[in-house]
């Protein structure tokens, strides 16, 4: 809320869902609906869902059993925040900057998400971890 007690328009139109590992198919469907309703092209929805799935999967497999997804429009971008309650991760540097080793079978999620989004930020601390990504709409 701003100093007048009014929520910014982006907060009013934000949609949120809480999920666990078993809920990932519903999370993808929820996110796809939100993206399409906000004007994301069909061609872009697939890459958006790959990035989102990587981050959401990380949240409920490495962070905490439950996580939250928040989706909102911000001008010509769709912004998604994935928040888990995991407090033990202390990344060295900016996560997802370095490609995984050639024969890696895991550890690619944030790198893939960084490639598919226009911006990604990772914040971790006492309140857990939040990964925020932006996608054009």
Automatic annotation (TrEMBL):
InterPro entries registered for this protein in UniProt: Anti-sigma-factor_SerPK, HATPase_C_sf, HATPase_dom
A molecular function (GO) term: protein serine/threonine kinase activity
One Pfam short name: HATPase_c_2
Region listing for Disordered, in residue ranges: 84-105
UniProt entry keywords in alphabetical sequence: Kinase, Serine/threonine-protein kinase, Transferase
Ranges of Basic and acidic residues composition bias in the record: 84-93
Keyword Transferase (UniProt): yes
Keyword Transferase listed: yes
Domain of life: Bacteria
Residues annotated as domain Histidine kinase/HSP90-like ATPase: 20-135
Protein name: Histidine kinase/HSP90-like ATPase domain-containing protein
Organism encoding this protein: Planotetraspora thailandica
